[in-house]
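Every protein is a chain of amino acids, and every chain bends into a shape of its own. Below is the pair of lines this work produces for a single protein:
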Amino acid sequence: MRIPAPAPLFALASPGWLWLLVPVVLLAVFYGVQQARRSRYAVRFATLPMLERLVPRQPAWRRHVPAALLLLAFVGLAVAASRPQVDEQVPRERATVIVTVDVSLSMEATDVDPNRLTAARAAATAFVEGLPDGFNVGVVAFAGSATVLAQASPDHEAAIEALGRLELDRGTAIGDGVLTSLAQIEAIGDSAGTDADGEPVPAHVVLLSDGTNTVGSTVEMAVGAAQEAGVPVSTIAYGTPEGTVTVDGQLVPVPVDQPSLDALAEATGGTGYAAETADELDEVYDDIQSSIGFRTEPRDVTPFFVAGSLLVALLAAAFSLRWFARLP
């Protein structure tokens, strides 16, 4: 199974302020030079035995701790000035999701226990059950043609019942499956309304298939329509290269055409997945559910960097007072 790499979780809204680190670096260099000069001067000032009598023995590292902590505090303040942000997952209140399932004869292959279609039905049902109540959900099945089994609506039970009616047929009309799904999204149109930010409610097509487009509209036509509508199509290439089915008494190999499905997803702004077992398919649907059910928003964490830098500076002062009876 292939899961996309996560996006970066940390960013700086105003990275130009990182130039403040330059004087911090210069200060650190100046501190190092001064320490080197101090050591050379001490050796010239007196013999080592005399120094041991004049200066009480203390761990040499202690005199560097306050300075190091103070420099660390300066670094934290420079980063704070750059307005650090982290990605935060915020649940969506509304969205439209079309679950599009391949019901071609190849889905009868038993390389997935008990067979591809049964496992796909169970995983898709769990996927729909886990979507937020406010989401519109529709179900489209395709073989030689595409059929709407449940129109997009907040009635998730209707979608689950529709998944239970999936039946095998000849042909693999992936292009028609995508176009019919897009038509469902267009049909719901303005009734979907807008989300909390005033933007149109997002829509997504989740298409599961194991084969190559053989009949109906071309995949290129589907890609063009999805791009024009601004609707991403995430694909799941389901099954193994060793899958076979018996058609008219003959054993026919039905390997998964993952490259074609990945290309469809990439061209429409969706994500291409692959699963070879029922457990992997569950994980894929969980990942899709998370990506559709939440939107990522930047959260400013500047106060945390300021507070952390202040605490580090206070710690530097405390160590300096404790060990040397003075502030750094």
